[in-house]
Automatic annotation (TrEMBL), chains A, B, C, D:
Annotated GO biological process: L-lyxose metabolic process; rhamnose catabolic process
Protein name per the record: L-rhamnose isomerase
This protein's encoding gene: rhaA
NCBIfam families reported in the protein's UniProt record: RhaI_grampos
InterPro entries linked: L-rhamnose_isomerase, Rhamnose_iso-rel, Xyl_isomerase-like_sf, Xyl_isomerase-like_TIM-brl
Organism for this UniProt entry: Actinoplanes cyaneus
Source superkingdom: Bacteria
Amino acid sequence: MSLSLDQIKETLRAQRIETPSWAYANSGTRFKVFPQPGVPRDPYEKIADAAVVHRLTGIAPTVSLHIPWDRVDDFTKLAEHAQEQGVTLGAVNSNVFQDEDYKLGSVTNPDPRVRRKATDHLLQCVDVMDATGSRDLKLWFSDGTNYPGQDDIRARQDRLATALREVYDRLGDNQRMLVEYKLFEPAFYTTDLPDWGTAYAHCLELGPKAQVVIDTGHHAPGTNIEFIVAFLLRQGKLGAFDFNSRFYADDDLMAGAADPFQLFRIMYEIVRGDALDPAYGINFMLDQCHNIEAKIPAIIRSVLNVQEATAKALLVDRDALGEAQRSGDVLAANAALMDAFNSDVRPLLAGLRAENGLDPDPIAAYRRSGYQEKIATERVGGEQAGWGA
Amino acid sequence: MSLSLDQIKETLRAQRIETPSWAYANSGTRFKVFPQPGVPRDPYEKIADAAVVHRLTGIAPTVSLHIPWDRVDDFTKLAEHAQEQGVTLGAVNSNVFQDEDYKLGSVTNPDPRVRRKATDHLLQCVDVMDATGSRDLKLWFSDGTNYPGQDDIRARQDRLATALREVYDRLGDNQRMLVEYKLFEPAFYTTDLPDWGTAYAHCLELGPKAQVVIDTGHHAPGTNIEFIVAFLLRQGKLGAFDFNSRFYADDDLMAGAADPFQLFRIMYEIVRGDALDPAYGINFMLDQCHNIEAKIPAIIRSVLNVQEATAKALLVDRDALGEAQRSGDVLAANAALMDAFNSDVRPLLAGLRAENGLDPDPIAAYRRSGYQEKIATERVGGEQAGWGA
Amino acid sequence: MSLSLDQIKETLRAQRIETPSWAYANSGTRFKVFPQPGVPRDPYEKIADAAVVHRLTGIAPTVSLHIPWDRVDDFTKLAEHAQEQGVTLGAVNSNVFQDEDYKLGSVTNPDPRVRRKATDHLLQCVDVMDATGSRDLKLWFSDGTNYPGQDDIRARQDRLATALREVYDRLGDNQRMLVEYKLFEPAFYTTDLPDWGTAYAHCLELGPKAQVVIDTGHHAPGTNIEFIVAFLLRQGKLGAFDFNSRFYADDDLMAGAADPFQLFRIMYEIVRGDALDPAYGINFMLDQCHNIEAKIPAIIRSVLNVQEATAKALLVDRDALGEAQRSGDVLAANAALMDAFNSDVRPLLAGLRAENGLDPDPIAAYRRSGYQEKIATERVGGEQAGWGA
Amino acid sequence: MSLSLDQIKETLRAQRIETPSWAYANSGTRFKVFPQPGVPRDPYEKIADAAVVHRLTGIAPTVSLHIPWDRVDDFTKLAEHAQEQGVTLGAVNSNVFQDEDYKLGSVTNPDPRVRRKATDHLLQCVDVMDATGSRDLKLWFSDGTNYPGQDDIRARQDRLATALREVYDRLGDNQRMLVEYKLFEPAFYTTDLPDWGTAYAHCLELGPKAQVVIDTGHHAPGTNIEFIVAFLLRQGKLGAFDFNSRFYADDDLMAGAADPFQLFRIMYEIVRGDALDPAYGINFMLDQCHNIEAKIPAIIRSVLNVQEATAKALLVDRDALGEAQRSGDVLAANAALMDAFNSDVRPLLAGLRAENGLDPDPIAAYRRSGYQEKIATERVGGEQAGWGA
């Protein structure tokens, strides 16, 4: 089962990571958003930035959209713009958390009018998918409560199930629903989709087009994420990742920055479950905020971190690992895994890039390209895109 | 929906809490077990102690057994002994974690011989249930790994599913399987049943006789347990509780001692879900360790804590609560819940006990009874029961 | 040591809680700020709202300011306005986190120009104190880093110490510096003042005018806050509280809402340490965000929660408690504490208010007062105050 | 400031790690201790095992003792035995947690008789140090409480201070006291030394011979340990490490196994603070439990993990790092650190070992040595050493 170098390279060549349009825009904490020079002012400029990341890394050919942040009059035109830039439009993310009406929830709001409005927005996102040709509708809800007693926990589940069903039934044949969960924030007492179990139970009841999405920053302290990966793969219900990293809560730092060993363990479960190939159907997305660091190189760095973790996972000598596991040799089994993690895969990946006609060092290439200076100069006037834009 | 005092009393009269045989025995941490005078030396003495708790509280008429800790030659005789004492035998708990063979797991062990042995033990527990007339088989597995790579996460799920299936198929018509989950300890890297989602998914595949058991100490920091209660009730998959309390990990302190407000919120979801009545089928068990405090009064205290939380939950003015929730009045809704929590239900419960011919103050009654002195004197010689006994 | 009812009432009459100007204004999460009708548009209106809280509760006679949010041309005039309303100006809070320059830190910024600017702001806050007659300068820094390597952890401590020293030396005879710590947010990897130990060490080096402030929401999961209270009291270094409550991170919910038992334990340590009396010098402040609930009644509710926790703490039979503790009776000692917590102190406090000429139910009195409707009508036009305003 | 390869090698040659006698013995969780063949039966055999680790790694020349577990009639003889084996006796660890008397605490016990007994034990440990020539007395207390109200938090601090003072005053000129802290376990509500701040405050009051020891497994979730390292170095109060690793609580796994990136960050702060050299005075100890893995190779693996993390820390290009930090280039600064972490230092260390006449692969050398088979055969009969032995 251990792979040859050629097999490893071939697998790495096929890897795909999707970058999010909003990560190119301004973002921040509740305390402050620090704007950066050259930040995109509209969806077209976001896609241009994403295309730069793809041109330099070679493995980021799709861009997630966020509706209404990325709403345009003509999505066909936006899709054509993407294609001209060398990328395509990816998952459509709904946003039912930035309207006054959603103060006490969107699809789980006690007020039926607000639930209708929120569900209608989700249905419109499917319309957008029809226009863009996107396969994936990613649903994250900020819905929850801040105080014990504020609302009925169970009734909110009923409302959630009703809305999900209506949207599910609207999906086309080649469309999927990705259901995201999150422990807390912005709701502080209950969240209506707080953990993978809740998302899984809803997806199971909805049907095969509903799949769970794992955001790596959305768990309680001490949660073993690679276990969830392995379990959902076994159940056939892992649809996507939102990669990022965190030290405390949903910090949305660059993937692999806070715990590179965890990212490696996650990617090992993907490799072990034969789920890396795009044909398997998992959408490997980034979902990050670059609050204080330069945005485009931060996204490049994140893509490279996922790629390096994947290369290490592919290096695992699975024959040796399996033998040690079967014989109960705890230290030898751990060593087999660590041997791969402790390897330096950067030369391998630099070589692979060169073979593919890319610069071996995408970060350096970006710095040399002059793109940052160009957008800082050109993107003056207009309103910078941000979390609310 | 708000209840009259008579309805509240009637409901409280019907409440049932099961106490665990092992809580009457010595227990401790990995650092030290502090033995206590008068501790039982065999299952018969454990049941005698449990009977004292029931006589004083009036709501703890059943006792959970732990096999092999409570193995006796003749379970019919043990059941008769219980009946003479005024209690009956409750859930049977399997123990597949204290044999040398289980060092790397029981039903998920990489060695098929060990898996066979562990599964056979579970089947024997069903034999015990046949003898004792117990309805519930409670399964907790210490299975997991300590180091990344130590074993294959997904293969262990396959092994777990196989063992559970075999035991499930052995269950009689009136028997159930209660599947327990736990975040960590004694396994430190992965646990094969780490969270409610995993237990739920297995129970769903097994069938209607498999239900999830919530141990209130088995969660990651920040987990909202009452959400899990509400969700599992909605799915019809909540089979039992293991009550205890904790500040950090699985501290196994007296129920309600660490966070009485959380216990109240849990019991409110039970009341709201009409799941308190024994006919609903939830087994409300304690699962605690009294390492430094006197054991019998600690169990009485725990039973009372659950009862007080229940009484408060029953006091909630659900009409006012529902109206505030529907109108989106966050503060009024919170206040409706808090009004019940802030009430002092001890006079109500003391009165209820008096009406039922019990001492209004079970702790004081125990102290006056001389039972503690009696067992300290009589139970000399022999080996005290403990976690390994 | 147990108190008579008269002593309890006298103590409760003397209790003082300070409310924060910014809690009357709009606030939110990074996802959304939901504006509310009637929110103040300037510091004068904030103080008017705070005065309402004091008139109804009788124990909230001071208001914390935040600079520059509450900057006015003439602080003497603001102080007079406060006095007319029946309140006085309290602690001055510095804000060195909402300027572009502070992206990588304020007083710990690697750039000396930014450090100078930040320190100058702190010095200006002391000028404000001179004008308002405030005793307390409360310092919270968002300073920290998001990524390993981003800056030198130890050098930042040197810079922090330098700035604190300069400001400390500027304090007048009757002025104090309150140093606040926080685990994380908005910095995600390191925070320069992450825990009480760091704040304590700096305060110790600065001198007697520097004291630690405990914000109850600023700790790692599982931190025992009452231990910190007891320890800092023993060291003579507890200067103030920022009360609020939380389930996960720094949720800034109403004090006592998430864990009323914890608030009681904290207030018990205050009572046990004879530190409740204003003469002791602790500033008991609220620091909260009312994102979805009505602001003024939420603050009233928080004041009442602290008051109720205090009343329960005063009810503890300390003679019985001490005796049980000394004799090693774990259950009796715990019961002595719980007996007070389980008491319903609301009738006592309602009576106390009536004796003092206040409405026994401040929340109901507020609802009846028409103030909410009045401000919703009158405060139209202008810009609502908020976290950035 | 960046080091040449020669400087790196020289530094690595001087590195010293102390291994703990108890890690060679049986250990386990509260659920089960799994005995292993060949485990030592007395302190002499433990030292023999430690000597093997030193012969293979070249950097573990000292062994920590635990009293009374390692009590012998003649410590001079034990010291000679160690010297014959090529190692010396290191820190003396007190044990005041495994006697019936310590159920409610040792030096903080409410009973003065127990406090006297515990303090006397600590003084006897200094006698042992006199006999063994040990410099360090390591103090860890399991003291704390399980239930709110159980004992007076502040009075326990007074008792703790009294005991520490008496022991401190007994120390010889070249002896030190290392004060360890721990969040929880075995106490579940309060711990009398729960965090570094408490240990630091006590050490500061005691004097220069009292230093803080950081056990890497003793923190709340989300605690930034390298911050504490940097801070204590700045204060001159970091005396020692107890290395191990953890996913959840105090798991006591092999150092570097759970989070190798964290270990690297810790060692980087040590390198940055010029504190690696033995002359600086930090005692770098392991404190681990090998519950399911073979003990001697697990300790070798841990020593190598610390060594590899150190080598990576030494590889950091501190010139580049400092420049990026000073210029506020977040990504470049992070990259400078990560560049070192992502390097594979195993060839460097293998070469270094070969230069020093050691086998390049200590684990393989141990497996080949036949030592494990030898002790499994020879150490039959007698009682295996364990946590209680």
